[in-house]
Amino acid sequence: MNSENDNSGHALHAVAGQGDDPADPVSPLSSPFDDLNQKIIRLLREDGRAAYDIIGQQLGVSGGTVRNRVARMREAGMLRIVAVVDPVAVDYETDAMLGIKTAPGVTPAAVAQRLDPHPSVVYVMWVSGRFDLLVEIVCDEEAQLAVFLHEHIHGQPDIAHVEVMNRIGMFKNQFLLKHHVP
Q1: Three-class SS of residue 28?
Q2: Which ranges of 47-130 would DSSP assign to H, the alpha helix?
Q3: What is the pLDDT of residues 90-144, one digit of tens each?
Q4: 4 contact partners, CB below 8 Å, separation of at least 6
Q5: How far apart are CA 11 and CA 60, in angstroms?
Q6: Which architecture does CATH list for 94-166?
Q7: Which of 31, 73, 101, 116 could staple 161 via S-S, CB 3.0–4.6 A?
Q8: What single DSSP character describes residue 137?
Q9: pTM of the predicted model, to two decimals?
Q10: What is the topology classification, in CATH, of domain 2-75?
């Protein structure tokens, strides 16, 4: 049995590997649906490098409580803390959005899986409408974009059609950093 103290001195108990539902292997202390965990996640979204003591002060709990909660969520595979680089902020020379229509009999997931390992690919979304996938490519120079398109897009048997949309200007870029998440 694991225990963790909150600020009131009460011990919070959870049996490792069990949540509210005995069939659910997630501890309530590692659940992203727990109120304290949601608050911790919200603060980490704003600053993934924030000190646990500072987060704890903001939430009225100890830094150790925050550290334990983050560790449990990470161990449960429910939280990953990563660096997110905004491609526009680092001044890539060129970026383009590709609207891809997959070839008959090819799933969008198969094309997404093939493109995923390439470092120039920063965004892949399965969409409805005239395209099956939207894929964002960022490159240090235009020649790299041309090489990527030649080697990985044009003439590939899993792609029926592609529309390449180069960025001309940026009016808003909220990227993935949502500061006002409920």
Answers
A1: helix
A2: 52-59, 63-75, 108-115
A3: 555 678 999 999 999 999 999 999 999 998 898 899 999 999 999 999 888 888 9
A4: 11, 12, 29, 65, 68, 69
A5: 15
A6: 2-Layer Sandwich (3.30)
A7: 101
A8: E
A9: 0.52
A10: Arc Repressor Mutant, subunit A (1.10.10)
